[in-house]
Hints:
Leucine-rich Repeat Variant; mainly alpha; 2 domains
Amino acid sequence: MKSLALTLLAIVPWTIGWTNTQAVASAVCYTQDGTDESDKPAEGEDDGKKDEHLKEWPTLENKSGAAKEVKRLVKARTEEMGLDAAIKLKEIGTGVTPALLKSLGITRDEDTIARIHDVLDAVTGPMHTRLLAEHFESKKVNVRRYVLGRVAQLPDSGVAKQAEAAWAAASSERSRWEKDDKYLAALCCASAGSEVGLELLITYAGKKWGKVREQLALALPSLRNDALTSKLIERFGNKERQAQVNCLRLLSLCGTKASFGYIRPLLDSGDGSLKKAAINACRGIIENKPPLGDISVFDAIELAQKWKDRL
């Protein structure tokens, strides 16, 4: 099974779906935790909580055994061998990450990359973001794309400077980074609470919403604030229909209650796509829920009325 990270790796030509549902579920959980404003101390103020982010990778008790399993994972001649090695590496835990990243930087085989991503997704989490961030500007394309994509799933304001540096590297006129790298750097910046690269994400949201919505849903909530809400409405809110739909979609991910005055009239829109986008914006802002799929005209009218009563 291709991991969520492989999906982020293969952004273009947009042919791989988000298949790792466990990774998605855990990442959504991390996003909600990471974007809780009440958990963020004022600048210069100690929040009184112990920083649980690791400063170094755990030491392996059996380095030779771990190295053997990494080799089996990379060189797997059969699916069974790869699965067995993956299971054992997941049992060994986070300490195998450096060896896996090293192997990831060497291999070009897509199946091998997928197996490595699968294990890395399982052994890394919120406490490892600072360590993964050390590889944001790796010269190994597979490594930097994995770590940027993975950390984008795990919002952490502590990696903002590294994410912004990665964006600068990707945006440089002399940069050899491809557009996939630039998108991932922008995604990681947003997840870390930085608006650097936001313009690119807005462009992707407008042109490839169906492909990037789940990725943006993990990153953009870290930017949720009244100022950005006002900017989005001022910029897109009073233009043609598609611009309004795009605005509502963005508001569903990073908008605040300050947008309700704009959204409420659109719940009465005779345009089905606008009404649905307004409903989804309410769901995202108030309940932090994903957009609804296809809904009937009757259901849309009923839901719109319910949301009007709540606003």
